[in-house]
Amino acid sequence: MQMMWFSISGMVLMAIAALAIYVSRYKLKGFFKYLVGTIAYFCLFLAGIIMFITIISGPTGG
User: How many domains does the chain fold into?
Assistant: First the structure.
């Protein structure tokens, strides 16, 4: 059950990253564009690590 929530948090981070990247590219300008973009790519990187851990850990048997 814990791995399920861990995986869902990765998917939520990916969704947040996609939305933030869209906003930073098309809606923001100046400093905030780079700030939101940096945060978004960090969320995407973290979500990728979470998904990698989830896939490598395999079936939980529960």
Answer: 1
Domain assignment present for residue 52? The answer is yes
**Would you state the pLDDT for residue 61?**
65
Residue 28 and residue 36 in contact, taking contact as beta carbons nearer than 8 Å: yes
The runs of H, that is alpha helices, within 1-62 are 2-26, 31-57
Environment class of 31 (CB within 10 Å of its CB; exposed 0-12, middle 13-18, buried 19+)? exposed
pTM: 0.85
37 within 8 A of 25, measured Cβ to Cβ: yes
Q: Are 54 and 5 in contact (CB under 8 A)?
A: no
Are 49 and 5 spatial neighbours (Cβ–Cβ below 8 Å)?
A: no
Is residue 62 domain-resident?
no
In a domain, 26, yes or no: yes
